[in-house]
Amino acid sequence: MFSVVIPLFNKQLSVRNTVMSVMNQSFKDFEVIIIDDGSTDDSLNVVKKIIDPRIRIIEKPNGGVSSSRNRGIESAKYNWIAFLDGDDLWEYNHLETISKMIAIYTKDKVFCSSFVRSDLSVGETNSNEITVIEDYFVEAQKNHFFWTSIAVVKREVFNDVGMFREEISRGEDLDLWARIGRKYRFVKSSVVTGIYVQDSENKITKTKLKYVETLFNDLHKRTTEFVRSSEKQYYLTILLRAAKTFFSRKEFKNGFKTLYRFWKLYTIKVQS
Fold first, then answer.
1. Quick one: 38 and 74 in the same domain?
2. Domain assignment of residue 272, yes or no
């Protein structure tokens, strides 16, 4: 039922634990597609030693995480695509939690659970609340709830909105979720089933500032209207927060540059 896409680049110390967190799922109907993105350490040998017929390994030259995820989506046998980065972890009930939501919300195509950082304990909780998020941009202004390693998306969504933009090196996930958010609602479980591992090797921290630098280089040139006011406000909020951070660091040139982008974005109209 699920195709689990794991991009891999130089994660030899962590990738085995990542893959085993999938193989130990209580829900067993899945395949695992590991896309090695030209690793230069022992990552590839580590995953080749994990013997299970549900695992497929694809080797490719280094092209970045987006190209790896896209290759995984294209190679998937099943209609439901689940993502997991090569150093993050799932609790045993991740796929089971998503599967139950899919069975209830049969018309929806975008699902996620909840997650914690690895330096925090998951703990015991009786919370099992499911929230239907009608407007992605309203919720995403509060926090980036739709984290890649807990995201599950039906294949046809990618056919509709496109896949990860390979020319973006930062914020490529947020860019895709925003494109999905223009057309689809999100179904979220409060059950914590994902663990964001912060201290693994080769970890890239995708800060809002880097996201601003990549995404808004072309977004501020945009001439099309926003779908709704919340979409426009979402981007304005990110820019304003980034500007405040720049000024707090006394990076005044970047701060004023970001405020200029804020003003350019503010002038774009919202569809009536």
1. yes
2. no
Q: Is 196 exposed, middle or buried (0-12, 13-18, 19+ CB in 10 A)?
A: buried
Asked whether the predicted pLDDT for residue 62 surpasses 90, the reply is yes
pLDDT value, residue 267: 83
CATH code at position 98: 3.90.550.10
**β-pair partners for 189:** 130
The domain in which residue 254 lies consists of 208-266
Domains in the chain, number: 2
Distance CA 147, CA 140 (A): 11
233 and 184 both lie in a single domain: no
Same domain for 233 and 189: no
Amino acid at position 212, single letter: V
Does residue 186 share a domain with residue 88? yes
Determine the pLDDT at residue 222.
52
Q: pTM for the complete prediction?
A: 0.89
